Amino acid sequence: MSNPFVVVGGDAAGLSAASKCKREDPGREVIVFERGQWVSYAHCGMPYYVKGDIDSLLDMTSLSPEEIEDRGIDLRRNHEVTGIDTDQQYVTYNTRVGKTVRQSYGDLLVATGASASVPFEGQDLDGAFTLHHMDSAAAIRAYLTDPADDPGIDAEFVDDALVEQYAAMEPPETVAVVGGGYVGVEMAEAFEAHDLDIHLFQRGERVLKPFGEAVGTAVGDRLEERGVTLHLDEEVDHLDGDDHVEAVVTDAHRVPVDCALVGVGITPNTDIVSGTEVRLGESGAILVDDYGRTDAERVYAAGDVAEMRHAVTGTHDWVPLGLTANRAGRAIGQTVAGDPEPVGDVAGTAVVKAFELECGRVGLLDHEKAREAGFEPVAETVTAGSRSGYYPGNEETTVHLVGDRTTGQLLGGAIVGEDRAAIRTDTLATAIEANMTVAELERLDLAYAPPFSPVWDPVLVAAKVLRGTLEE
Amino acid sequence: MSNPFVVVGGDAAGLSAASKCKREDPGREVIVFERGQWVSYAHCGMPYYVKGDIDSLLDMTSLSPEEIEDRGIDLRRNHEVTGIDTDQQYVTYNTRVGKTVRQSYGDLLVATGASASVPFEGQDLDGAFTLHHMDSAAAIRAYLTDPADDPGIDAEFVDDALVEQYAAMEPPETVAVVGGGYVGVEMAEAFEAHDLDIHLFQRGERVLKPFGEAVGTAVGDRLEERGVTLHLDEEVDHLDGDDHVEAVVTDAHRVPVDCALVGVGITPNTDIVSGTEVRLGESGAILVDDYGRTDAERVYAAGDVAEMRHAVTGTHDWVPLGLTANRAGRAIGQTVAGDPEPVGDVAGTAVVKAFELECGRVGLLDHEKAREAGFEPVAETVTAGSRSGYYPGNEETTVHLVGDRTTGQLLGGAIVGEDRAAIRTDTLATAIEANMTVAELERLDLAYAPPFSPVWDPVLVAAKVLRGTLEE
Question: What CATH number labels B5-36+78-114+267-336?
Fold first, then answer.
């Protein structure tokens, strides 16, 4: 029992690894350290919990602590690992009574995730939130609703004091959403459902920058249609207020608001590996090989704290998303159990809902990045119907595709529309991971039936147009 | 002007070819013969027209005769081509005054489609329909509704006498649907919308046989839930009646009905090539090469009358579907214009709606066919959520996958569920056309966001399970 598989972090990557290892090698001791109360919870569901689409925070956890322990995993919540000794192969952590204790490991997985980063002042004011903890989500919901009437404020696991503090406050009427990424767009929808007056601040010229112009423009328009005031090309300088947020101060304006939700970026939690042999990549996340191994012997990393190989560029990149974390964790659990399994690569697939709009992106969309990777990018954007034109529910679907002039290879794509647009991204993801050319994409035998797709699916129409341009 | 591109058949394949050729080579004379009135119409929309989801037959034509002529195409409706001389390179057709006339060709495309085949007696009775003509659809709708109130009975193009005949009849209360394929399932939905008492007769043990057991069982259950009486494993012997259909007589029963819709199969319209060098494949449809060329010089075939190469088996097969027809026609138009373009292959992708259920299939599902093609098929069926479990609208999605034991290659798949199930078939179609293994499918970076997909898409869950079985 002196050769345990030790996992630092009790969310997607960590628990996938722990579970898989225990299943494949039931005799192996598996210990999971989690610094907080919450384990195995769904970050991605939080905006919908705040919106009110999901009844309870507990609904968003896929495994309870008891279920994890039933799997034979030694789960230690509220245990913060503070350091790693990769020579002697142990981690140090603090006990509740302040003692520092060592735990040796046979294999170690660093799955410490990422934290919201806020590059300006005022985030410590009351009414200023990020959305990187379940407790924040509970506090925001308590703030927006009358907790007496809201069964969605769970007693268990929640930071009671925080929730009660916000429940006691007058509900806000105006909110600043700082950042127009996934979190910003999803939270705008959530706040709109509570009838707040919403100001969204975005440093760049469009929301959802990684989705490119076609999607970003469509989503920006939709946000405005739904009453969101967009402040584009406007950088937030600080949040202003005495105890509570009173205004957002930008490089151009001072906009009075009752509260603020800041989602401007996250940074990988790499503190515990600093000073060790574990090396970071250019992105600042941990560098790993095809099996999730770091530069330190028997130390793995996965999830939001680690880089992954990009399917198009072949180089390592930081793409912190849920499936990646689950898949890499699971693969490492299998590897540690003696049956090596690659963690796979990422195609940069991402989808997001913006009110009725479904948005997706995959691969390389940014021409500059494409050129850096040695491609000569050419792009086309087309709009076509999601179903046969005569069939009810047909919706305009915009597809943006990027291909390489020299080889014809499909490099990336983005889709936006109201009818099954997001899930069509999977077709592009599959084609990209298969290294298909745009011509091959055009020739795919995709599904056709009037209720689901026109004869030429929007993806095929876009491929046809881009292929024409590539062959000019 | 003695070198025209002559097309026989004015629907998907024929008009795609004519349009593409004219666009690429505007100086070329292009003549399209169509034996009927209707051109460029959507077979696949007819059940929804009968149901009442689509207002007008005209909505289902993608091009009017005028638009076709505006493209510079010489469109000759009501001209039936009766023979081809592949030595002298001309076709013969009958004029309205009964003269037989020759038209020489430089290139010829046979795009004569397929016709409903009915292997039993009684189909000539009133009240017995197939759904292979727009006029039938108009007659059925006139029969079901009060034409005075129904704007969906278009005056133009329709066989007035037939429509008036059915409009004058008492609307039916009971209908027999003979055949449980696409048409049968879609028409059951259409008749249910008009509150008919429906008896569906299927020779085999399940409906939608090409979709396999998982889909067929789910759809059969759904039909019964919606009040359809299923007569499975029951072969229709004939339709009984004096002038009008009075009953369906099977090998087991006599079921009184007011009318019957027969959709038991179609046969390719190959009559005009008999006695020529044009050769038929084993399926009875015209054999073509990768460019749609038949064995006769300068004679092409495309659409429901022609075979196509199957992406999985590599051999030729008859898969008469809309996208195939459009794509092959377009490619042949380009080839004829001097820029050779392969017609592509088929993956056997098909989707169908059965009330709320979305169904899809692709590739090889039948184990016997897979073994004939040299594979050792292994299959798994899993049911998983379409969205995150906590997100509203999450629906059970059943995915059936078939892989090859020896190589791990993905051979086929089928999907059924209520939430975006059909469009997920495109992911499998893309993977199959890319010759992916089941392990590669499992590692795909597919889209995840709570409103659209769980972390592990049902396709990935099925791939994971099948991969486990393949590696046993």
Answer: 3.50.50.60
